[in-house]
């Protein structure tokens, strides 16, 4: 059980870091962080609808893995 807990914690750490980066990459609705660091570059790079949809799918996938790892860590700690 100890090794499984360590593996889940590493997965949680990695998915948390990737989620932060993925969320910051999303196209901003206004004067948010996306406009603060990108300006005109963010508008031209994020103008593709396919890229934004793929970014949404990747973000949702990482968030599901993040959620499942949190639930599994909680269950392991409860029954250990």
Nearest-angstrom radius of gyration?
A: 17 Å
The low-confidence runs, each spanning 5 or more residues with pLDDT under 50, are: none
Shape: elongated
The beta-strand count equals: 0
Please report the number of helical segments.
Answer: 4
Distance between the termini: 8 Å
Approximately what portion of the residues adopt beta-strand conformation?
under 5%
Largest sheet: none
Helix content: over 70%
- The secondary-structure class comes to mainly alpha
How many distinct folded domains?
1
Global mean pLDDT: 84
Query: What is the H/E order?
Result: HHHH
Transmembrane segments: 58-76
Subcellular location: Cell membrane; Membrane
GO biological process, one term: protein secretion
Pfam families: SecG
What does this structure look like?
This protein is mainly alpha-helical. The protein has one domain (2-79). It is 84% helix and 0% strand. The longest helix has 31 residues, at 49-79. It is elongated. It starts with a helix and ends with a helix. The mean pLDDT is 84.
Brief description of this entry?
The chain has helices at 2-25, 33-38, 40-45, 49-79. By secondary structure, the protein is an all-alpha fold. The chain has one domain.
Any key phrases for this structure?
translocation; elongated; 80 residues; protein-transporting ATPase activity
Task: Show the helix and strand layout.
Blueprint: H1 2-25, H2 33-38, H3 40-45, H4 49-79
Helix pairs in contact: 1-4
